[in-house]
Amino acid sequence: EYILKSASFKVHQGQTLAIVGPTGAGKSSIINILMRFYEFQKGEILIDGNPIQDLKLENLRSQIAVVLQDVFLFSGSIEKNIRLSTDNITTEQVIEAADQIGARDFIMKLTGGLDYDVRERGSALSTGQRQLISFIRAIAFDPRILILDEATSSIDTETEELIQNAIKVLLKGRTSIVIAHRLSTVQDADNILVIDKGRIVETGNHKELLDKGGKYAELYYKQLAMTEEDL
Fold first, then answer.
1. How many CA atoms lie within 13 A of 140 on its CB side?
2. Residues 6+ positions from 65 with CB-CB distance below 8 Å
3. Which H or E run contains 216?
4. pTM, rounded to two decimals
5. Buried b / exposed e across 8-46, counting CB within 10 Å, b at 16+?
6. Is residue 55 within 8 Å of 227, Cβ to Cβ?
7. Which helix (H) or strand (E) holds 127?
8. pLDDT of 17-64, one tens digit each?
9. pLDDT tens-digit profile of 147-201?
10. Could you give the CA distance from residue 186 to residue 171 in angstroms, rounded to a whole number?
11. What is the 3-state secondary structure (H, E, C) of 151-165?
């Protein structure tokens, strides 16, 4: 039983593709096989026309930054968690990346600034602050391809505006794939795929999909109603 069935699509350079759908639809499976966390049995994935199986794993992953919903930070300084022990990124580049995200002020308010110890799994930081650190890390490595499993539903209100701004900075001019949980965050995507039970059931931009009145419109208006109930 294949998880993904006839799931064919293209992402052009510099464009943002959003993938939406119910839990268990196959959204994360697309990311897992793209990163070769596990291999696929049928079909092909091409980057610049090259099958990803022909690329060295190190070379493939060096071109892609993944920002996951569950951010993992190691015990140690903020700078260490951004650079991940690489010598290719300087302290100045870390500060510049923090500036681009708009997170420099929050870092410098912490004791020691970039030297602040986030502790095991980043327990000394809030959920939103950990997410910001992961965004700075992605910017600092300057990937050709960005994969963003965005999650703002559990973000504290203090950092939510920073998070939304950081997402815009990350996506600008970069080839990006966004797994969207809140459809309000992907309205500006160049193309949106709606996945259900491993199949692409709809594709188009936000307006086109709303006009179709199909699965996307159903999900969107359901979320909109839930948001209004919370107000």
1. 28
2. 137, 138, 141, 143, 145, 146, 147
3. helix 215-230
4. 0.87
5. eeebeeebbbbbbbeeebbbbbbbebbbeeeebeeeeee
6. no
7. helix 127-141
8. 999 998 888 898 999 999 999 888 889 999 999 999 999 999 999 999
9. 988 655 556 666 777 777 888 888 888 999 999 887 877 888 999 999 999 999 9
10. 11
11. CCCCCCHHHHHHHHH
